[in-house]
């Protein structure tokens, strides 16, 4: 379950539907405990208690132009370039609980460290970090 302060317009999240299925939506708004979003099938709404984060996977990163670099850190680190800005992202994948506890994921832009936190293992958090670092990158799922 997500909290209201974790939501950001444009972020990808899961909505748990009444029939037990999950759909990927891009959040479009939030009001009075209801999250609104768009999917490939149209517009939707969901109680915030039924909204879940989408875990980052290597496949999602690779689909979005990130490539793993093995010579930077011994941890999963991916590099990418957008509009001339080169940046690195170190991600703690949810299935690696040991890494989550000891790795501090980061974003480094043009060889300058600009963001550091202990929980960048979800797509919406990566989108937020890129936004804070003024990197205009549309994530695709």
Write a brief structural summary.
With 141 residues, this protein is α+β, with helices and mostly antiparallel strands. 16% of the residues lie in helices and 37% in strands.
The end-to-end distance, rounded to whole angstroms, is 20 Å
Strand order, main sheet: write it out.
Answer: 4-3-2-1-5
The number of strands is: 10
User: Regions with pLDDT < 50 over 5+ consecutive residues?
Assistant: 99-103
**Share in β-strands:** 35-45%
Q: Helical stretch count?
A: 3
Order of helices and strands: EEEEEHEEEHEEH
What is Rg? 16 Å
What structural class results from the helix and strand content? Answer: alpha+beta
Q: Outline, from the CA principal axes?
A: elongated
How many separate domains?
A: 2
Largest sheet, if any?
Answer: 5 strands, antiparallel
Quick check: average pLDDT? 80
- Give the helix proportion (percent range): 10-25%
Q: In words, what does this structure look like?
A:
The protein is an alpha+beta fold and 141 residues long. It folds into two domains: 4-52, SH3 type barrels, CATH 2.30.30; 58-132. 16% of the residues lie in helices and 37% in strands. The protein contains three helices and ten strands; from the N terminus they run E-E-E-E-E-H-E-E-E-H-E-E-H. The protein has helices at 58-63, 97-102, 123-132, and strands at 12-16, 22-31, 34-39, 42-47, 51-52, 67-68, 77-82, 85-90, 106-109, 112-116. The strands form two sheets. The chain has a five-stranded antiparallel beta sheet. It has a five-stranded antiparallel beta sheet with strand order 6-7-8-9-10, with helices on one face. The longest helix is centred in the last third of the chain and has 10 residues, at 123-132. The radius of gyration is 16 Å and the shape is elongated. It starts with 11 loop residues before the first strand and ends in a 9-residue tail after the last helix.
């Amino acid at each position: 379950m997500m909290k209201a302060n974790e939501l950001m317009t444009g972020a990808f999240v899961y909505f748990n539907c009444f029939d037990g299925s999950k759909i990927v939506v891009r959040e479009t708004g939030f009001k009075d405990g209801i999250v609104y979003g768009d999917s490939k099938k149209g517009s939707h709404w969901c109680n915030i208690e039924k909204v879940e984060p989408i875990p980052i996977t290597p496949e999602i990163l690779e689909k979005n132009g990130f490539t793993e670099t093995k010579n930077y850190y011994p941890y999963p680190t991916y590099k990418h370039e957008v509009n001339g800005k080169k940046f690195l992202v170190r991600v703690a994948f949810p299935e690696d609980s040991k890494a989550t506890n000891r790795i501090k994921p980061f974003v480094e832009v043009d060889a300058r460290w600009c963001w550091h936190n202990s929980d960048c293992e979800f797509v919406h958090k990566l989108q937020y970090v890129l936004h804070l670092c003024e990197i205009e990158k549309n994530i695709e799922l």
